[in-house]
Amino acid sequence: RTVAVDDLPGVAVERRADVEPRTTLLDLVREQFNLTGAKLGCDMQVCGACTLLLDRKPVSACSVLAVDADACEILTIEGLSNKNALHPLQEAFMEFGALQCGYCTSGFILSAKALLDECDQPSEQQIRDYLAGNFCRCGCYQEIMQAVKNVAGKS
Prior knowledge:
By secondary structure, the protein is an alpha+beta fold. It is built from five helices and five strands; from the N terminus they run E-E-H-E-E-E-H-H-H-H.
């Protein structure tokens, strides 16, 4: 199967992998492509730690089969920055301290990116609703909201 994965900042790289039908998209990107930003949290599509963008839409990669991503565009956190410059969401998460352990961070950032790609000036409620599928065990929700609102305010 052929899978396009943005693992170099701003550059789509087409990759080929032979996968078993039961291989998840998360296992493919982590184990075969060595892109480890997305994490396995709950393995039940609940926590959002494994969020990737599949054709620009957030998905729980632990619950998507790799074969179902055939010929799709996949964006990982590794492909979000632009050359040597971090994406504005990555900058804002650092600026506002929107992370502690960092386990959930890539999922939140990619979910927020998908939201801002759809709506450049979302309301606070829209942000909350869109990020509802992501869970932060450290409780950084206020800082995460500040970071996303800050980037949305600059759009």
